[in-house]
Amino acid sequence: MSRPLSALLALLALVVVAAAPARDARAADTTIPTELIGVDIEERPGALLPRELRLRDQSGQEVELGRYATGDKPLVLVLGYYECPMLCSLVLNGVLQAMKESDWSAGNEYRTLVVSFDPRDTPEAARQKRANYIEAYGRPITGDGFDFLVGDEASVRALANAVGFGYRWDETTKQYAHAAGAFVFTPDGRLSRTLYGISFPQKNFSLALREAGSGKVGSAWDRVLLFCFHYDPNARGYVLATKRLMKASGAVTVVLIGLWLIRFWRTERSRPGRA
């Protein structure tokens, strides 16, 4: 079966991820293929999760979206649709791989939420998809740590617009054209980071979760990691905070020199014949 649109979107996602660090060095090409118009991701840091939206979970129960932005757990949000022939599975598999490599567990330190933007998707489709991914995750899930939701067109469109996620129905291929990425929210429902593409390196995924947690979850070592790394929007990932480390090392050096001088002066004064 031919899947031209999905293949094109998947290829574009790979190209975007590979070429992102070199974008500034190239001449801008503003020509966008017709198939890709309106299916990008717009950066909206600080955007609020529309808590009042009512969707249905994998059991068919109606839930408010705000249920997933409570307590002290960051939230990873993935938008897709359950009958997607290619790209959605690539994104979900990328998130799942990052989840498996992380030392944090879904349901304990953070939540993962998958929402279908296809109003034709049913709770039964969500249940089957969830069962497959939980089995592949291989860890016990507590509470609403890894849920799959469905909703009506207006609700899911409102959610997508809130986070800057573009998608549209392509009548020719009878498929959705959509962007590729995941969204990380703070425990109180503010968009902290947007992760692009279909592959999410463990470092970027873990640091995004720790940053979104704002020190409310995790260990002292997590805060050390956040001090050493910062998010670079050009690289679309976390890089070593060289300047910050240089300042810190400089301060430590000054303190060590001061301690050495104090010890030296005390030793000199304690010698016989010294006043």
Provide an overview of this structure.
Strand 8 (181-185) and strand 9 (191-196) form a beta hairpin. The protein has a 5-stranded mixed sheet with strand order 5-4-3-8-9, with helices on both faces. Strands 1-2 form a two-stranded antiparallel sheet. A two-stranded antiparallel sheet has the order 6-7. It is an alpha+beta fold and 275 residues long. Residues 11-28, 215-231, 240-246 and 248-252 have low confidence and may be disordered. The longest helix has 29 residues, at 242-270. It is built from 7 helices and 11 strands. The chain has helices at residues 4-19, 87-101, 123-137, 153-163, 202-213, 220-228, 242-270, and strands at 54-56, 62-64, 75-80, 111-116, 146-149, 167-170, 175-178, 181-185, 191-196, 229-232, 237-240.
| Rg, Cα atoms, Å | 24 Å
Averaged pLDDT: 77
Poorly predicted runs: 11-28, 215-231, 240-246, 248-252
Largest beta sheet: strand ordering = 5-4-3-8-9
Task: Count helical runs.
Answer: 7
Basic shape: elongated
Q: How many strand elements? A: 11
Strand content: 15-25%
Instruction: Please provide the ordered H/E string of secondary-structure elements.
Output: HEEEHEHEHEEEEHHEEH
List strands and helices in order, with pairings.
Elements: H1 4-19, E1 54-56, E2 62-64, E3 75-80, H2 87-101, E4 111-116, H3 123-137, E5 146-149, H4 153-163, E6 167-170, E7 175-178, E8 181-185, E9 191-196, H5 202-213, H6 220-228, E10 229-232, E11 237-240, H7 242-270
Parallel strand pairs: 3-4, 4-5
Antiparallel strand pairs: 1-2, 3-8, 6-7, 8-9, 10-11
